[in-house]
Design goal:
This protein is α/β, with parallel strands linked by helices. The protein has helices at 2-29, 89-103, 143-158, 172-183, 220-225, 248-253, 257-274, 293-301; strands spanning 45-52, 61-68, 77-82, 105-111, 165-170, 189-195, 228-233, 281-286. The protein has an eight-stranded mixed β-sheet, with helices on both faces. Strand 5 (165-170), helix 4 (172-183) and strand 6 (189-195) form a beta-alpha-beta unit.
């Protein structure tokens, strides 16, 4: 019996070790992403290019979808469009194309692709602050930093004079956008719109990330001064719509996305008032719309 238990324990230990080592190699050693493309010059119309996601490493690459209206000129509006959980950046870009033509907006849609998007959230909507295994990543590898890197690349490669950009995200993209403002308040964001996020990071220093900000170094003073719209569909009140996190801490935020968004805004506003901080966030509800990124894009466009 002792030998059986010994071999059983050894087998479990070996399986865990192989999983951890294999995961580490996959996440941190093997290059990931599509093949690099030659030119990143953005011509009018729809296109895409692939660049290194990090400025100090070549081990992760990212595809970036773009749409440039024929009438767009240097210095015009640039909008980052952040996809949902399915990592379908091209679909999100397509939802904005007619809007971009009408309002003369340069669209940029990064694709944070992952074969394991159904079970991993740390690498995208939680900003890649930590790996799937829990260890911390440097800020240079945060997903929020990747957005800044893409902006720098587009501006420098195309000789644009733009100093800032707008950003819109829906569902998991809404999670991404509001956390980017909280954790990277020096980002060059002029206007941010976080739509129908599944759950939020509250200005709560007693609760661990991603539900709160305990042990997270950031400047809420700067974050609360940035222009952020919490955009909520009035009919996004079905907890069975899409994939909604049901953990204890998530459920404390509200039973559905609408309630969670309302509670997040009120909590943030209350924090700002108590700390006597400037507060430039707004809460806007969209009538007759549920968890639909195309309809939320139409509503968001009127704010740009």
């Amino acid at each position: 019996m002792f030998k059986i238990l010994k071999w059983f324990s050894f087998g479990i230990f070996s399986a865990v070790l192989i999983s951890v080592v294999g995961g580490y190699i996959y996440l941190y050693v093997l290059p990931k992403g599509p093949e690099l493309t030659g030119s990143s010059i953005v011509n009018p119309g729809k296109s895409s290019f692939v660049i290194n996601a990090y400025t100090d490493s070549t081990r992760k690459r990212i595809r970036v979808w773009t749409f440039k209206p024929e009438s767009w000129k240097d210095g015009g509006s640039i909008l980052f469009v952040m996809h949902g959980m399915a990592r379908n950046a091209e679909d999100y870009l397509d939802a904005w194309v007619e809007i971009a033509k009408r309002k003369n907006i340069f669209l940029v849609a990064p694709e944070f692709e992952s074969e394991f998007y159904r079970i991993t959230t740390n690498d995208y909507q939680e900003g890649n602050l930590k790996s799937f295994f829990g260890w911390s990543n440097p800020e240079s590898e945060w997903a929020y930093t990747v957005v800044e890197n893409i902006f720098d690349h587009i501006v420098s490669t195309n000789n644009f004079s733009n100093q800032n950009y707008n950003i819109f995200g829906h569902s998991a993209g809404g999670q991404f956008v509001h956390r980017m403002l909280l954790l990277k308040p020096d980002a060059r964001i002029a206007q941010a719109i976080a739509a129908n996020a599944g759950f939020y990071t509250f200005p709560d220093t007693e609760t661990d990330y991603p539900y709160g900000l305990r042990s997270i170094a950031t400047s809420l003073n700067k974050s609360l001064q940035m222009k952020l719209v919490i955009l909520l569909g009035e009919k996004d009140n079905n907890s069975n719509s899409g994939v909604l996190r049901q953990t204890e801490l998530a459920m404390k935020q509200g039973k559905h996305r609408l309630a969670r968004g309302e509670n997040f805004f009120l909590s943030s506003k209350g924090y700002a008032e108590q700390a006597n901080l400037d507060f430039n966030w707004r809460l806007i509800k969209v009538p007759q719309v549920g968890h639909n990124y195309k309809k939320m894009a139409l509503a968001a466009a009127e704010m740009l």
